[in-house]
Amino acid sequence: MKKFFLLAAAAVVAFASCSKNDQPEQREAAIAFSSYTGRAISKADGSFIGKESTELPANSKFAVWAYNTGSSAWAGTVSNVFMNNVEVTYAGQGKADPSKYTYTPLRYWPNDEANNKLSFFAYYPAGGTGITAPTNGWGAYTFTAQTTPATMVDFLFSEVAADQTYTHTNSQVNGVVNMKFHHALSMVKFKVNTDKEYANTTIKLVSIKVAGVKTAGTFTPQTASPYGAWTGQTTAADFNVYAGTPKTLTTTAEFLPTGTEATDAYLMVPQDLGADVIATITYSVKTGEDAEVTNIANVVLNTAKDKNDVAINKWNMNQNTVYTFTVGLKPIEFIAEVFDWDAETVSGIKIPTE
Fold first, then answer.
1. Tell me, what's the pLDDT at 37?
2. Backbone phi and psi for residue 7, each to the nearest 5 degrees, phi listed first
3. Is residue 252 part of a domain?
4. Strand pairing partners for 229?
5. Is 344 within 8 Å of 300 (Cβ atoms)?
6. Residues lower than pLDDT 50 in the chain
7. What pLDDT does 38 receive?
8. How far is CA 334 from CA 164, 286, 292, in A?
9. In this predicted structure, what is the pLDDT of residue 129?
């Protein structure tokens, strides 16, 4: 027996910029950065931004490009690179405080605003494992996911903050550019439980493996919503969701592998789920003094449905999916049937015998 549930998530992340005006009368204002994010929970990798937070992890970095399009509006192509892969560090504890964001050397807003429109784009985390950025920032990114939750990178991309000048920014504050980030990956989590308590019986999870998940692809940013798209997903791999000491299961669903939602989140390349994406659940059953029995169940993930009975046949960008595997036992039951006696065999015996 198995159950699946989907939890929707809209974890949208954003960052902004701060300005220092050393000589206001000359308008030599430095371009700097502050942040707004969509929900952060710490994780071993350090880049993870989970649900229910609006702040980057402390001491994290994002990389910024800026393009000078002169008097023309941003048209979705790179013209003159003004900032090239500049790493901005957020100190933490103050997402809206521009002083918490540092980079070097400082860049300054051009004085001739009519002929120096700047458009900004960024990705996070700067230099993250598995991320290969294009030369000028705007273009195709290649990405390869890690296969364990602790090392996975939370790849984010920003909308283009187009046609910015010192006195005209999308933050409505002079010199402050708001970089609005989105999750490029799909967050997937796994839970397991039993459908009820079974008297004098222990059910243990031995392992869960998910096979056929594509771990690499090409991400290309877009000017309009959804601001990016994935293509060329490839390199199928197995994910050992649980492979430790056999774990006794109860009716309470627990996240795997560690039991903690934040650390157990898998950050997957968005992809269609074909029939080859299969979860294999191995569990043991022991009743009383009877011998332990090992069972194996194979589940094609695209057969799972959400609470609205809609098939989950793909992982989309920014999607937050929780699969709950519910183990149920089929009891051995009995009825009884008694076969009737054969038809009578009649024999006569005379006494005394002749």
1. 46
2. -110, 120
3. yes
4. 220
5. no
6. 1-27, 36-42, 44
7. 40
8. 77, 20, 21
9. 94
Please give the pLDDT value at position 31: 75
Residues 147 and 288 placed together within one structural domain of the fold: no
Maximum CA pair distance of the chain? Answer: 146
d(CA 91, CA 183): 21
Q: What is the pLDDT of residue 41?
A: 40
Per-residue pLDDT, 156: 94
**β-sheet bridge partners, residue 176:** none
Q: Which of 240, 232, 190, 191 is nearest to 215 (CA)?
A: 232
pLDDT for 45 equals 64
What global pTM score does this model have?
0.84
Full residue range of the structural domain in which residue 51 is found: 13-185
If you count them, how many residues does the chain have?
354
* Residue ending a domain, choose from 142, 168, 185: 185
**What's the pLDDT at 56?**
79
Whether 178 and 209 share a structural domain: no
Is the CB of residue 120 less than 8 Å from the CB of residue 138? no
Tell me how far apart the alpha carbons of residues 133 and 125 are, in angstroms, rounded to a whole number.
Answer: 11
Residue 256 in any domain: the answer is yes
What is the predicted pLDDT for the residue at 34? 52
How many other CB atoms are found less than 10 A from the CB of residue 224? 8
Q: Indicate whether 346 belongs to any domain.
A: no
What 3-state DSSP class applies to 290?
coil
Q: Are residues 48 and 88 in the same domain?
A: yes
- Assess whether 127 and 167 both reside in one domain: yes
> What is the DSSP pairing of strand 201-221 with strand 247-248?
antiparallel
Q: Provide DSSP, 92-113.
A: SS-TT-GGGEE-SS-EE--S-G
How many structural domains is the chain composed of? 2
210/306 same-domain check: yes
Give CA–CA dist 273/87, Å, rounded.
Answer: 35
Query: Across-strand partners of 181?
Result: 13, 158
Q: Report yes or no on 153 lying in a domain.
A: yes
